[in-house]
UniProtKB/TrEMBL annotation:
Organism phylogeny: Bacteria, Pseudomonadati, Pseudomonadota, Gammaproteobacteria, Pseudomonadales
Gene3D superfamilies associated with the record: NAD(P)-binding Rossmann-like Domain, UDP-galactose 4-epimerase, domain 1
Recorded metabolic or biological pathway in which this protein acts: Bacterial outer membrane biogenesis; LPS O-antigen biosynthesis
UniProt-annotated stretches for the region Disordered: 268-294
Protein family membership: Belongs to the NAD(P)-dependent epimerase/dehydratase family.
Protein known as: NAD-dependent epimerase/dehydratase family protein
InterPro entries reported in the protein's UniProt record: Epimerase_deHydtase, NAD(P)-bd_dom_sf
All copies of domain NAD-dependent epimerase/dehydratase, residue ranges: 6-243
Organism name: Pseudomonas benzenivorans
Amino acid sequence: MSDAPVLVTGGAGFIGSHLVDALLAQGRSVRVLDNLSMGKRSNLPMDNPRLQLLEGDVADAALVSEALSGCQAVAHLAAVASVQASVDDPVSTHQSNFVGTLNVCEAMREQGVKRVLFASSAAVYGNNGEGQAIDEDTPKAPLTPYAADKLASEHYLDFYRRQHGLQPAVFRFFNIFGPRQDPSSPYSGVISIFTQRAQQGLPITVFGDGEQTRDFFYVADLVELLLQALLAPQVVSGAVNVGWNQATSLNQLLAEIGGLFGGLPPVSHQAPRPGDIRHSRADNGRLRSSYRLPPATPLRKGLQGLLGLD
Ligand code: NAD
Ligand code: UD1
């Protein structure tokens, strides 16, 4: 890799800021484009001279072009990460979650930048897993605007690959968790909400019976994969699931959290959320054959890391 900066869109957010830290630790220069809707300056080492933060929107094509100028590669992570926010407001989330990707592709074509990492999602499979591990060839069934925008973004990236020689490394993240995942919205990641509420002794709401499952993946493990994808001489062709092929129900998650705190605040149940996926577990064969996987951080150890108990 050259000395030119890596552009990280969404770099002030949860996953993005961990990637920024890792790139800076490798001695690289990083430019972040983030509208700070969820991201925070305090997630970033603002005093590092190799870091530059541009505050603005990926839906602004001119700004994306300016942000990319002189960069060698892009990690495109900016998006409204909440599935439920997209159900409530499909028009505005489409600007971030799809138009932003198109702007990144166009700016890359104009400036001849080739390598892009893209944060797609397990949400593209909808309920097609039916409780089984989902491989990448499983038919796609996006149930929400969020999932539709991620799948459309994948297709556009593939078009720019075929037509303009872009090198997209597309990852379908399952459920990522760890420090800096912001629990402040009701639509934040479930682990961030449950741990914060348990810590503060506030009641916990489970949508549905709590038997829905997710494949939780610790953020530090993810960052190791993202770094490999940025540096690899060639990109892996096709999208790659990022999960451990391990299903944890919300009830099991609550039991783990209760174990760490020596008990739980009151837990109540409400109706399942519209478009909520019942079971989500990754077949990670392609991930294993394409990348050097770090040892899996077990859920309990990840929760300890998140709570600063490690
Ligand atoms: P996050 O909300 O912490 O990070 C997203 C960042 O993008 C935030 O800093 C936010 O301010 C920024 N952003 C949002 N809209 C923007 C816009 N229009 N212009 C510029 N910046 C904008 O969420 P995260 O969990 O770190 O998610 C990062 C990426 O990974 C997202 O694309 C998300 O869809 C994807 N993803 C996350 C998970 C997960 O479990 N966390 C799973 C699958 C995919
Ligand atoms: C998450 C990510 C999404 C990603 C997807 C990939 C976030 C906010 N969402 O969506 O970006 O694409 O994984 O798999 O990071 N729940 C409760 N109580 C709460 C909060 C949530 O019961 O207070 C339930 C939800 O209804 C859902 C489960 O917990 O059944 C997980 O919810 P959430 O963390 O929002 O994740 P996903 O919807 O899976």
